Amino acid sequence: MHWLLFQNIGLLVCFHSFISAFTLETKTLIFDAYYEYVSDRLEWKDAKELCNQRSGALATVSSSVEIQELSSFLSSLKISHPVWIARKVKTHPTSSSETLILEFRGRSDSKHARLLHKFPSMNLVTVCTRLCFDPNSFGISTIFSYSIPSYINEFQLRANLIQGKPVQLALLVHGIHGPYQEAFKHDDSWHSVCVSWSQIGGSWAIFIDGRANSSGNGLNSDKIGPDGLFILGQEQDTFGDSFKKDESFSGSITELHIWDRVLSSSEIDTMEKQCSPISSGLVFKWNGAAMEIATSLTKLWRDVPCQIPGNFKQ
Ligand SMILES: *[C@@H]1O[C@H](CO)[C@@H](O)[C@H](O)[C@H]1NC(C)=O
């Protein structure tokens, strides 16, 4: 048996006229992984996409354990013809570990995750996350909502998804809705989004992929209140509850971090290049154990999306 391993695009082009092969898929459960054989003949790119659609990934052979497991899986099915495997993903030198990706598949009034973090009152805040929007979902889409017992719409990041238009993002602080600003193309690619807010003048800023995209002021002049509930993927109509499908998020979220200060544009730029959060002022660090995650969400462990060469910004 032999596998076709494409180390780079050049090789892929060389092999383009070669017969398309069968697809092999790795699916990752929370702590368990298994292979699934898909007997479709596809181009490599389509094979990769198919696995992703089935919330798996093309099988890899990056360690001797994987090679052994894959070999025994294939021989257990008596498969001796070539199958596709994933090409090696370039990992960033400063961080090669995998991260938890929360997949919200389709809009619902239940899929959400809640940060298990005790929030003090905040006069400065920055939230950064990596997002991928479902290209087939439209309307208002809540990335996160923070409510306090005395005020429900205390702090939110919302998107407005209009067919044929870029993703529009807006911040909302204590009921005051900032303007929707076009941010990036509404496709299924990953983007880093940072939002910051300061009580002074109610000034706010949105950064996309490490670059300043929009800013303004007048978003409230009081502190963001303490002891709230920070929920991913749903807008709260009552404290921690009353979610609505037509304001929910569909797509994937990972690497959400919160700082108790306003990060400068050069810090955000640096962070994007280094693909890891700046530690000064970091009060919430992305971590599956620091969240209560609805069982209807799909949890995947993958390399941080900024490590994918196509998405990697120099
Ligand atoms: C923000 O992003 C949009 C969409 O990519 C772009 O058209 C716009 O020029 C950006 N704004 C700034 C200030 O960079």
TrEMBL record:
Coiled coil (residue ranges): none
Entry annotated with the keyword Metal-binding: yes
Entry annotated with the keyword Calcium: yes
Alphabetical keyword list: Calcium, Disulfide bond, Glycoprotein, Metal-binding, Receptor, Signal
Gene3D superfamilies reported in the protein's UniProt record: 2.60.120.200, Mannose-Binding Protein A, subunit A
Domain spans labelled Pentraxin (PTX): 98-306
Cofactor annotation: Ca(2+)
Listed GO MF terms: metal ion binding
Superkingdom, taxonomy of origin: Eukaryota
Leader sequence residues: 1-21
Protein name per its UniProtKB record: Probable G-protein coupled receptor 144
Organism: Notothenia coriiceps
